[in-house]
Amino acid sequence: MPPTVRQRVRAELTAEITAAARRQLAEVGAAGLSLRAVAREMGMASSAVYRYFPSRDDLLTRLITDGYDALGAAAEDADDPAAAPRERWLAVCRSVRSWALAHPHEYALLYGSPVPGYAAPRDTVPAAARVGVVLGRVLGDAARGGVLPTAAGVDRDPELVSDETAAVLGGDHPALDDAVRLRALLAWSSLHGTIGFELFGHLVGSVADTDRYFDLAMAELAGLVGL
């Protein structure tokens, strides 16, 4: 059944509110995001915006979920199952960096400093996991194809790496052992650390060619996980 006129209007206005909020992110940062400021930019009464997002935290949650989904979609689009596992890994990592450089304020919302007074709810986790799921799929396919070395007898410490995280990193690929999943988590976090260093200016004066540096770092991480 097609959406009703009311549903279409609500969806369009919700999209306009979130677009205005993303512009606010670029101007004042996540900590300065205000529903009243968004309403002023749109020429709406703040009470009207509150009907769509009852609080600033609700709006932040929507922006975070949308950001994770957009980043995850970029990673999924970059993954070519017909390519060699190492090339798939590198392509996914490059796509994450490209998205971050194209959307620096949204990336900062996802992976930058925590927003004072805000805690992301659990329902943001599936979107946040999408990049990890793609990387885990690459590793799982490599393991099933006999590309990854195994580490028989290495058990994952559940107090160090949760079952939930292990499931994200190749949960539907039983050929992956716990040692590979642990290295995958290290690589996943290092991917974002490398991007953050570049995005927030920490490589200035240290690296002359950030493209080459990133490719070198990701190649090292590919080697870490056995690709």
Automatic annotation (TrEMBL):
Residues 34-53 bind DNA. Pfam families: TetR_C_33, TetR_N. Keywords: DNA-binding, Transcription, Transcription regulation. SUPFAM superfamilies: Homeodomain-like, Tetracyclin repressor-like, C-terminal domain. GO terms for molecular function: DNA-binding transcription factor activity; transcription cis-regulatory region binding. Residues 11-71 form the HTH tetR-type domain. This is DNA-binding transcriptional regulator, AcrR family.
